[in-house]
Structure formats: structure tokens, C-alpha cells
Amino acid sequence: MQKCKYKISIFFLAAVSFFVSMPAISFLGCGAVPVATRYGEKKPIPENVPLKEKISENVIEEDFDFSNFQHNIIVESKPTAKVKSVNSNVWFNYDETDKARTYKKEKGFRVQVVTTDIFEEADSVRAGLYFKTYQRAMYIDFDPPFYKLKIGDFLDINAAKELNFKLNQLGYHNSLVIPDSVNVIN
User: Fold this and answer.
1) Is cis: bond before 46, omega within 30 of 0?
2) Taking Cα atoms as reference points, which of 127, 117, 121, 113 lies closest to residue 174?
């Protein structure tokens, strides 16, 4: 059985011919046509023709009558009542009345998602969960030497367990429901 000693040279010849021919083909095939032939031949305007005649050749005469289509459209404006949106968690429907609310501390429950000694790690998990769960109440507590990411202000343990279940489905298997003091609207 003989080995082909020309394999490398055939491959080299094919590569060189490819890299030499591709720029030539792309240059000749992509827009190498004069503009005049692309859009049709335009007859040049002679230099000795006055300017008014040059302009009058390019003017389009319109014979369409717009007067048949002029109508007065009257749109009655109705007063609209301010409606509370169903999607109140969406940022562009943010309710400005939240700023005027006052909160008090009560015993309740939160879901602890991450315990880490690096603040940036806890903050990046918080940012990711903000868009996955749409929970506004997210807290990073520093309990030396750890940062703990806690979510929610739940008075009912079942609501906290529902969020814990959702977080487990999202891949946060170390999350757990913990008793904590929570913020409650006054």
C-alpha cells in the first residue's frame, strides 16, 4: 500500500486558489457596475440651456384633484378614569403612591436564598432573581462574616413556602423559609 506524497501540496494549492479567487469574485460581483447603467441611462442636460429650462424638465405635473377627499373628521374626546393596572409590578406602571406609604415591623417569614461571604455574589443573585420572580422585597443582610439574601415580607408561612417551591424549581435548592421581622404596610 503506497501513501500519497502529494496530499499536502494538493491541499495547499486548493487553499491558495480559494483565498486568491474569493476577493476577486466578491469585488467584481458586488457593486462593480457604474451607477448610470444600474439605473438606466440618463441624458445629460446641455450646458448652453438656460437654468429655467433645466428645472422645467424635472418638474412633475400633477393632475390629481384633492378637493374630493378633504373631510372634516371630528373625534370626540371622552374623559378617562384612572384605572389600576393588573400588571402593577411592571416598571412602567409603577405606582407613585408607594412612596407615601409607611411600614412597620412585625414577625413573619422570608425565604433565604444565598449565604455567602462575597457581597458581589449575593448582589448578582439578587439581580437575577429580581427579574425571574418579580419580587420587590429583596434584602441582603450582613451577619458577620456572611451576606444573606432574603426575599419577601410574608405574614403567612404558606405564601413563603410557595415562593420557596418556585425558587427550588428555578435551581436554588439551598433556599429555605426562615422566621424574620418583616415590613408591613401601616
Assistant:
1) no
2) 113
Grid coordinates given for 96: 407613585
Exposed, middle or buried by CB within 10 Å (0-12, 13-18, 19+), for 159?
Answer: middle
Q: Are 160 and 109 in contact (CB under 8 A)?
A: yes
Full set of structural domains in the chain with CATH: 103-185 (3.30.70.1070)
Place of cell 400588571: 87
DSSP H or E segment with residue 156:
none
Partners of 111 in the β-ladder: 151, 177
Instruction: Identify the bridge partners of residue 184 per DSSP, sorted by sequence position.
Output: 104
**What DSSP character marks residue 31?**
S
Report pLDDT digits (tens) over 127-138: 988 888 877 789
Q: Can you give the pTM of this predicted structure?
A: 0.47
